[in-house]
Structure prediction request, 225 residues.
Amino acid sequence: GENVEQHPSTLSVQEGDSAVIKCTYSDSASNYFPWYKQELGKRPQLIIDIRSNVGEKKDQRIAVTLNKTAKHFSLHITETQPEDSAVYFCAASRGANDMRFGAGTRLTVKP
Amino acid sequence: DSGVTQTPKHLITATGQRVTLRCSPRSGDLSVYWYQQSLDQGLQFLIQYYNGEERAKGNILERFSAQQFPDLHSELNLSSLELGDSALYFCASSAGDYARSEQFFGPGTRLTVL
Prediction:
C-alpha cells in the first residue's frame, strides 16, 4: 500500500518567515494530495490540496508543489503568523480511496 | 463545523470491554473513513466504506470491526480493549468520487481505556 513520509517532524520559524514542509509517497498511482492543519485538541481541517494533473497551486499565503516524477510534494507557507502554529499533515490517495497520512509536522511560529 | 458528527465525544472504559463509536457523514457523502490518532501521533487509517461496502483497509486490528448502514452512518466496534487502544478516533466523510476527494473530519471520540 501507499507509504507517505513527511519532514521535518518539528519546525520553528520567526513570525514573517517562510515555512516549508516536504512529503514523499511511494504509490505512483496516487493522484490526490491534500494538506491538513490540526490545532491542539481539534479536528484536522483541509487547507489546500493538489491533483496529479497540476504542478502547483496557491491560495493566498499557502502554496503546494507536486513533482510526480520524484514522487514528492511540498507545502509552502509565506509570511507566517502565530496562528499558523499547528500540526500539519500531508496525505496521498488514489482519488477518494485509501488515504494515507504522513506523520505530521509540528510548526511553531514565534512572535 | 464540517457537517460530520461523531458520538460519543468521550468514552472511558476498562480493559477487556467492548465499545461502539458512531459516525454520521455529511449529507450526500457516500464514503466514510475511520482513523486512529494516539497521543502525539499521526493519523492511522483504519478502514473505508463506500455506500455500505468496505472499500479499503488499513492498519485495523482483528479486534476492531466496522460497518456502514443503509442510511450511510457508520459504526466502529472495538472489542477486548487494551490500554494501548486509548486514542482519539476520527471519522471522516467524502463524496467518494475522484472529482470530490476531499475528506471532512468529525470532532472525534476520545477513548480512554483504564
Notes: The longest strand of chain A covers residues 86-94.
